[in-house]
Amino acid sequence: MIHSMAGGVLGDQGVHTFAKVEVAGAPAWYLAPMRVQAGQKVLVPVGRENRRAEGVVLKTEDCTAQTAPVPLARAKNIICVLPE
């Protein structure tokens, strides 16, 4: 077990793949439950209403819960990879 500086136990030690996706000129980080690569078009949920929008993957990163670009609890998943 790994303990945080505040004295609590850090539970999630798994590795998660995040993708930086550009949607309508604005980049955002999404969890990638499938393999994605830079340049691929993907369908992602956007906004509070989670409307579906097309985006382009800019880059991917493998992260732990502690190094993730956004908190895992707030991260949204890529819905699917779109055909070319």
Please give a structural write-up.
The protein is mainly beta. Helices cover 0% and strands 46% of the residues. The chain has a five-stranded antiparallel beta sheet with strand order 4-3-6-5-7, with no helix packed on it. The chain has a two-stranded antiparallel sheet with strand order 1-2. It is globular and about 35 Å long.
Short characterization:
The chain is mainly beta and 84 residues long. It is built from no helices and seven strands.
List the helices and strands and how they pair.
Blueprint: E1 2-3, E2 9-10, E3 16-23, E4 26-31, E5 41-46, E6 51-63, E7 80-81
Antiparallel strand pairs: 1-2, 3-4, 3-6, 5-6, 5-7
Keywords:
mainly beta, five-stranded antiparallel beta sheet, 84 residues, two-stranded antiparallel sheet
Mean pLDDT over the full residue set: 88
Share of helical residues:
under 10%
DSSP strand count: 7
Calculate Rg over CA atoms.
14 Å
Instruction: Supply the number of structural domains.
Output: 1
